[in-house]
Amino acid sequence: MSRYGGPPGPPSKRGRMDMLSPGEVEMELKKVNDNLPENHIILITVINAIYPINVSTLHKVCRSIGEVDRLVIFEKGTFVQALVEFRTIAHAAEAKKNLHGCDIYNNACTLKVEFARQERLNVKRNDDKTWDFTQTEDFGKVKDEPNIQRKVLLNEGPPSTGLGGPSRFGNSMSSGSGFGGSGGMDHMGGFGGFDEGQRGGWGGGYQMDRSPVLMVYSLDP
Q1: Distance of alpha carbon 101 from alpha carbon 179, whole angstroms
Q2: Which residues contact 25 (CB under 8 A, 6 or more apart)?
Q3: Which of 53, 82, 113, 170 has the smallest C-beta neighbourhood within 10 Å, fewest atoms?
Q4: 123-156 pLDDT per residue, tens
């Protein structure tokens, strides 16, 4: 966690954000309210958080100092902030002293640390932004609903392509499925001719830029 050393950060980055220059970072680190009394909760501001910051990341950073009970992450302006509740005031004071001015990753995610005003964090569930380490891992999560068996209408596998392909009804449908198959779209537009090898249906898929007219021949008068 050295400011100018250590391994490079992870490959994935956050979206566009305003980056502070090295001088601006140093000025931001000096904006610490030293008049706040010691507390077992610290406020961490992550400056230039170009990499994702989640519960796992900050817990790894803080647990080397002492036992963490609760952790809450949120955004304020261009900064990512976190409230970390330690088991003791002594561990929170040590974290403030040892983590302030450090980088989580090489030349990125600089930490500004100060005491918080809150006396206790209220965590309602465990996820990537909030976590109560005094509770079980599935704390606050919605319990799985019972598995309901529903009637299946088509006794066949789904098409290999979805609605995002070149045709709304992909040509990968198996023979006899109605749409698709060897009938195909003819080159003059609209639906292709009726395919005798399939059980009722048009060949190919409907496309908005082709004629919707179906040409039928050789009908008895």
Answers
A1: 64
A2: 47, 48, 110
A3: 170
A4: 999 999 999 999 988 887 766 666 778 888 888 8
CB 51 within 8 A of CB 12: yes
Q: Are strands 79-86 and 130-132 parallel, antiparallel or unpaired?
A: unpaired
Asked if 97 and 68 touch (Cβ cutoff 8 Å), the reply is no
DSSP string, 71-137: EEEEEETTEEEEEEEESSHHHHHHHHHHHTT-EEETTEEEEEEEE-S-SS------SSSEEETTS-T
- Between 79 and 86, the more confident residue is 86
Phi, psi of 108 (to 5 degrees): -155, 155
pLDDT score at 206:
45
Question: What's the Cα-to-Cα distance from 215 to each of 101, 186, 188, 211, rounded to whole Å?
Answer: 75, 11, 11, 10
Backbone angles phi, psi at 7, to 5 degrees: -70, 155
pTM of the model: 0.59
For residues 62 and 95, is the Cβ–Cβ distance under 8 A?
yes
With a CB cutoff of 8 Å and minimum separation 6, the contacts of 106 are: 4, 5, 6, 7, 8, 9
